[in-house]
């Protein structure tokens, strides 16, 4: 079986998988249905302020797993659904940003700067079309880069990195995430440290459960879903509830919207004028997305500011300035934040290192279902027998392109009809999210302790937000903790018990030096 | 060892025949929680879930599978020990959990705290390397180690790590023994070149058939089905081996009817190659291996007692 054979098998796995229903005698695979459903749900979640992709993924994941079971057949439908949500949410976020000056997702904040002024000028529909075009272009660009890069990166890692280097690489990723995410490297390191502390409860190689304080409850450690959903989702819910909803009940732009121009497709010269901006932002978003930890919000900010700087330098003085309804402002933001989604799967699939919340949920799905361990071993192009994980990987790529196709075809129309969701009041929404999350946890773990753990982690996530500490390093450290410990132990034994295994090979030593350097540089950047 | 095994099998067959009539009347008083000590998605987990599905189909029992992993099955054992003994809570683990692991952990649990329901299958445990290394038997690996090469030996449990150590000791070499999680991780490590050789419990069969992997030795008391010429651990001067089976167990004090009904039902399923579970066991685990009732209980107790000797030998 050669590489093209695997690509073909991956495509077949999506289109010829178990049938959901038959249309005119042709079977429609359940994976296909799930990708489309996830994509539409993602748009809805993105367009609802206070909801967003991560919450939608968190709630649907346990429900999907209990519906599809723990067989390898469940991987593509479940992960396809999550990929759909991930992609839908990025374009959905632009809707309330443009119509009501309320970003639906944090990364669409920059879209409000030019989108809402355009809406005030009666060009809301045009603004939405620009957002959709940029988002879909950025997304597609990023996916192509993913498919071209991930297998080669994985093969290189497998060919050149030995166990100690892999350990050093994990340390570098954690250190990088801690240094660049959130307010300060110090807080980032504390967040990551807490994550490691939590994941090390009850685990380890020894038969005696560590850190369990002799209780049966902690013996098995904290379930990964409880930690991730607690800190990320319940933390947000508690924080938003505490912020007092009164000031956020109404979208800030609910003053009368002026009469709107008729809806018409973007003309070719308009598209051509936007394309350079979209392409530049796509490259920015893709590069940033490929680095673990820096999410779509920073990509959007950098995309927007660099487009603004360029505009200020090169545009004639009579052109619409950024911040007053410039179409390029929307294009720069939306292309950048959407092109993160594909690229952030590069470290996930090739190294098993999640870079942002969406990737965290994909890893969570893979871990819960089993049979697919994201990491370099996925991309082993075995020729004599089929490597099922590689087929799944190409199946996931196919799912991404199916979602892109949805995006280009029905995405725009569906998105433009979602404006009403900005009026969903948060004080009704948040309790629903809370109950759904706890129910979802119980469905997956089937023991009451898991619910208590989730609530506890929710309080922790709330506290972290109060002191301005990002919960993302916590979650990523929790996910990587076991892998870090295993690989460190293995490197130690494999080198015959050399305590300096992290420093004896040049590559590992460079990784370790970089781990220190990113933290130092991060601390100096913010005095 | 072989003889003991045959005796046990014989005893099991008699016990099975004697209790089948009783068993027909038993029905569980409610849904059965089936705890699984293995990671979701692996061969062992699939085996448990396929058996559960078939039990539901054939007997109308409601079975709820749940992962309780970690600590070589001891996490499962700890929960199972205090569960109601009416047949509504059972677990699937390996005999090693109730033997070596329980003895090594010394956490106050012993086989007598449990009711062995039935074993399902054994392992085709071999010491495996890539054939591209050029080794055809364990002697070649030992020669390489004696030539100064530091060899990394992958093992997926502490008991196997002890066995790898004793194998090195018997052959006069020191392996760098690397403990990883599960047989698949050993195979990935060997394929990626992170490990030079390692234990694989049946997962190697496709690779060996294709000529990519080679069984250097059998870690069992008997030769491997696939490579009967590979020496056993006894041939290599090691007094211990990795013999063991998958098994279903419940808490101590389960009624004989419940135990017999369950073991009969499971045995019937795994012996039928037309069921998913039966096909999997035939393909990946060398066919069904059924020990139940008093014979199984005696085997678990014997394994537990014998573990002390292995622990002592490996800590010398």
3D structure, described in words:
The complex is a heterodimer of chains A (527) and B (316). Chain A has 527 residues and is mainly alpha-helical. Chain A has one domain (3-18, 27-423, 432-525). Helix content of chain A is 70%, strand content 2%. Chain A has 23 helices and two strands. In chain A, strands 1-2 form a two-stranded antiparallel sheet. In chain A, strand 1 (19-23) and strand 2 form a beta hairpin. In chain A, helix 2 (30-47) runs antiparallel to helix 3 (52-68), helix 8 packs antiparallel against helix 21 (472-494) and helix 17 (357-369) packs across helix 21. The longest helix of chain A has 37 residues, at 124-160. Chain A is globular. The mean pLDDT of chain A is 87. With 316 residues, chain B is of the alpha/beta class. Chain B has two domains: 2-123 and 244-314, D-Maltodextrin-Binding Protein, domain 2, CATH 3.40.190.150; 126-218, D-Maltodextrin-Binding Protein, domain 2 (3-Layer(aba) Sandwich), CATH 3.40.190. Chain B contains eleven helices and ten strands. Chain B has helices at 2-23, 43-59, 74-81, 95-105, 138-146, 158-171, 182-192, 205-210, 256-270, 276-284, 293-314; strands spanning 32-36, 63-67, 89-94, 114-122, 126-130, 152-155, 176-179, 197-200, 213-218, 245-251. Chain B has a five-stranded mixed beta sheet. Chain B has a five-stranded mixed beta sheet with strand order 7-6-8-5-9, sandwiched between helices. In chain B, helix 4 packs across helix 11. The longest helix of chain B has 22 residues, at 2-23. The two termini of chain B are 24 Å apart. The mean pLDDT of chain B is 89. Chain A binds chain B through residues 69-72, 158, 162-163, 202-203, 205, 207-209, 216, 219-221, 368-372, 376-377, 380, 384-385, 446, 486, 489-490, 493-497, and chain B through 39-42, 45-46, 49, 64-66, 68, 70-72, 74-75, 78-79, 101, 104-105, 107, 150, 152, 158, 176-181, 188, 191-192, 194-195, 206-207, 210-212.
